[in-house]
Amino acid sequence: MSDVTSSSAADLSSALQSGELSSVEVTRAYLDRIAADDDTIGAYLHVDAEAALASAESIDAARAKGAELGPLAGVPLALKDVVVTEGVRTTSGSKILDGWRPPYDATLAARLKAAGTVLLGKTNMDEFAMGSSTENSAYKVTRNPWDTDRVPGGSSGGSSAAVAAGLAPWAIGTDTGGSIRQPAALTGLVGHKPTYGSVSRYGLIAFSSSLDQAGPMTRTVLDAALLHEAVAGHDPLDSTSIDSPVPVLAESARRGAEGDLAGLRVGVVTELGGDGHTDGYDPGVLERAAEAVALLEGMGAEVRQISCPAFDLALPAYYLIAPSEASSNLARFDGVRYGLRAGDDGSRDLDEVMALTREQGFGPEVKRRIILGTYALSSGYYDAYYGQAQKVRTLITRDFTTAWDDVDVLVSPTSPTVAWPIGSRVDDPIAMYAADLCTLPASLAGVPAISVPCGLSEGLPVGFQIMAPALADDRCYRVAAALEAAQDAARGHALLAGIAPKENAPS
Amino acid sequence: MGPTYSDPVTSRPESGPPGIAEVEFHRSMSTPSPKGQLTRDEVAHLAHLSRLAVSDEELDLFAGQLAAVLDAVAQVGKADVTDVTPTTHAVPMTNVMRPDVVRPSLPRDVVLAGAPAAEDDRFRVPRILGEEA
Amino acid sequence: MSDTLVDLDEVLTRYEPVIGLETHVELGTASKMFCGCSTTFGAEPNTQTCPVCLGLPGALPVVNEAAIESTIRIGLALGCRIASWSRFARKNYFYPDIPKGFQTSQYDEPLCTAGHLDIELDGETYRVEIERVHIEEDTGKNLHVGGATGRIHGADHSLVDYNRAGIPLVEIVTRPIPGTGAKAPEVARAYVTELREILLALGVSEVRMEQGNLRSDVNTSLAPIGSLDWGTRTETKNVNSLRSVERSVRFEMRRQAAVLDAGERVVQETRHFHEDSGSTSSGRSKEEATDYRYFPEPDLVPIAPDEEWVEALRAALPELPAARRVRLREEWGLSDTEMAWIVNAGALALVSDTVAAGASPGDARKWWLGELARRANDSGVELTDLAVTPKQVAELAALVAAGTVNDQLARQALDGVLAGEGDPAAVVESRGLAVMGDSDELVAAVEAAIEGNPDVADKVRGGKVQAIGALVGAVMKTTRGKADAATVKRMLEERLVSN
User: Fold this and answer.
1) Contact criterion met (CB below 8 Å) for C30 and B100
2) What confidence tens digit (pLDDT) does each residue in C150-189 have?
3) Pick from C51, C60, C295: CB nearest A377
4) What is the ipTM of this complex?
5) A75 in a domain, yes or no?
6) Are C44 and A189 in contact (CB under 8 A)?
7) Which CATH code is given to the segment(s) B35-77?
8) Residue A441 belongs to domain spanning
9) Out of C55, C60, C63, whose CB is closest to A332?
């Protein structure tokens, strides 16, 4: 074990199982890194070192007694603060939930707890997951470990920064329009958005119910598969949870890493950075993506261009559907049962107190989206906006369905650009929204998509996206693992190993 | 009957059941302008509907920003959606139900622990104006 | 609040009423609509709540299958078409008793549509068309504190209990019901009565109106006779007794007629019914139409009942009240009119249960429509509210039939039952109400009567048999009614009449 805080979770798991490391040692190493570096990075909203060490100790004690433990037992992790955790502060990045201690665990939190993982803390995020840079957090700015003047992506930017900076071996993020994949891409991580319905949403603070999905953010493809397997599977508490076996993911990753993609049919999506669709894309991003496609071809994949015309409308459709659902999902934050209440001075009536509470509790982006969503659902506008967007969604799904006749996976860049400077897009919602251009189609269609690093541009990580049919998440892992293995071999080390604090950076 | 899951991912069978399922979800009462035009007054009305006590400065800011956003999202109107059914759920499942079995509730002290104000074992709220329910 | 009212008879000389009802029924499922919390009535506040029905962040709903089945069964009993594709929708509005900021309901894709219910009233049949039957969730309960009356107006603050939030609620909506004329108030009441009977027969709800299990929003409008258009309607909310349904329609007809007579327009609004005065008052006149921004609930998947499921539920429907009435009338050998009296008195189940407990149909009918109806009327309560069970009534009838008590003693025994002294036989025992048999005490009383009235005795001996009544009366007087008159007469005859 070279360095605990830069190794993969799979390696940590092996070291814990062999007794080479104790959970307390691993946990303490991460807590030390957090203590040393998180003031700079700002990845975490809440860290409970004592609780983390206590659960690490109990895992070590159980192991010492010879208890049957799962492979993840004793491995620390970080959860995006959108995941409800019993007794542990959960804010979803919003002031309106400041101080709330939930009385229950999200299903995925309960599964990870039962698997013996050690919760290091809850990570920063755009408020209610609305954003692409984590700058919409009500609490703090999170910095990209590759360049601390830049954003770590969003909305799961706390999770991406934590894993990339060595402040957690891996983390859970959530993805509504790209919030796992885009921050993973911007920080050189692997991030997977599972098939909608394959990871329980019970206990994830809802942003857009028909799009939200939790998934892994990790240093390696194999780690992502392992974490995904740990949280996936049917949950009777989530009506949209798919009751079918989880595909074998880790095994697919291992097989993929062998580098044989013979017979795999790969479609490069024209509308996502292809000919005539390069506006807004960094040339460096397009170059890295093209190199990745060439690598796949080199491993035996058959590559062709696939046109998905409806993808051009994914952005407007998404920015109608998600705010509409959000306007309803966020109505429960009314200052009656939990969270913030403002202006209750005895003179104001309930309506006024509710409006003041929500005004003070929500940040500007959340308010903008609530207002937009309220508008899109209004009588008289429903058909033209929400209704029309849902039909466009059907068209996007049809484009995918048609493509699956010809190809096994679709690929594109994950993000049109590399990480941008903090503050450069905050006043321009449209520019910010464009960051999700490539990730939205898979979200709207509910299909799985993974982002895997494919090199650097301007010294910053570029992500490559692989999309597959619903329930075929294993294909994402297989192809991503092949790409990862080929690149690591060519480079001589993993991409993340090239990360260095800015002040020590060679340039 | 158990839940069903079938590919492809569509919100409902293309040859959907007749009758009520074919009814459009909303009747259009007026047609919005093709270019999104959100006036300051409209934003104020929407903010009220959303229970957001926005400030005057915010109203000005949001009206401008939302007009731009609305312009962008109005692009969905360009799509030819003749005979296209809307996707409202990303999973093509039906009939997901649970048996009628009582499960333990939360202890009341836990329920009220997060309340901004409580009295007599209930959530306390300021006086309610408006309709008697 | 001084509404001018027009006499009902006069209203009908100029106007034609149209009524309509939206009835909410709390289902009697064990658990709530979308979570496993208990639905038991009367629990301590906020003890039957969980993350789902409190609307905690992250919690998700899962549909209660029994509630869906109950809704479909109600639809089938009302002759509805059961949708093969049905969805939930979110009805968005802010109110402290709805924990999610929206109510999960059904909008344009309800489970059941296009049914009907035939109402029999005074020998006429009125067909009430049912527009839809859908399932939704109930709200929590607000308690208003600091006002003079516990009402919302003038209250200082309010307290919310979410035990009721999320209890499955079925909404049954009629189409407008025209053509009822003077009978409009009674038709409204008869409709709710019949609906309640059906719900009881289905066993889907306890339908305890006093607990709010069944509440009706009653729409009333008036149009000038001969007009092709219907008038503007008002909606009287949450009317929660059969009597109030009738009274609210009557009041609105009289009030609206006065408004129209004055050349004014009826305001389309919600109104509240006041039990004490039998009047309605205006709710908030909405300064803006509420925009509920309905959209399909993305946290739930559609309910698509297949034919097999629906047919299985149809096959398992119990005998419905209308069919049951026909059958019982025949079994009991009653005329249509006699049966109608029982039904109109709301006594069918009571009579039927009394017969089932062993009484003859005649006795059961006589007790419930006679003595017991009088008692209920005297104390201003419903028959069902009397503290006597059909089984006790059957027991009382049996005691009379066996000669253990006579009618007068039986009424005294009923007093004891109603006073909570126990079952009839026990009351007869404890109060010493049993008819005297051929006992020494009775023999002594008979002989004392003969001795005390020698003139009358002689008349009887002389053949004037009808004079014996005076002697019987004397015996009954000395025994304070405990003797059986027929026995006394027989004993007197043995002593005074030869052969």
Assistant:
1) yes
2) 666 777 899 999 999 999 999 999 999 988 888 899 999 9
3) C295
4) 0.95
5) yes
6) no
7) 1.10.20.60
8) 4-311+395-494
9) C55
